[in-house]
């Protein structure tokens, strides 16, 4: 899910994370089934929301008369897409979560420079959370401008903004749903000892 206007935040009550995996091989793998189970164990009962593997583009579908649970649908079974869509859900406030795709109109690939800058402003918080979730899962994070055929843009400012937002979250605290999910992932994947400010180096100075 990508959007063209700011998202709000919501802070639900704390939820206990699931028990960590007892299979040492699972920590080295990144299976959709594990991520779906972690998310759904945390949020199906409390927020009537489930994570769903989709066959096409990602989308958020609110609950309605034909759908008992809201659905965070990630694209083509991609692990990174799941983390990204979860990040958007964690940023979205209560009112936004009642609307399909949180009520945002998506400007497709091929954006102008002005449109791309607007996109990047909205994506800072979701991509910061996605980075945090990726580290929590021991999964490689990649910045995304999502504009392959549009205006050429320098991503340096965007990367730095995401990095700063990550460290703001680490210093001031994550939105509660994001904190709950990150903690559960760290428990499951055994990454707690590697998690902290040092896990998020400045992307403009870090050695690849």
UniProtKB/TrEMBL annotation:
One of its GO terms (molecular function) is translation elongation factor activity. Pfam families: EpmC (PF04315). This is Elongation factor P hydroxylase. Keywords: Elongation factor, Protein biosynthesis. InterPro entries: EpmC. It comes from the Bacteria. Residues 1-28 are annotated as: Disordered.
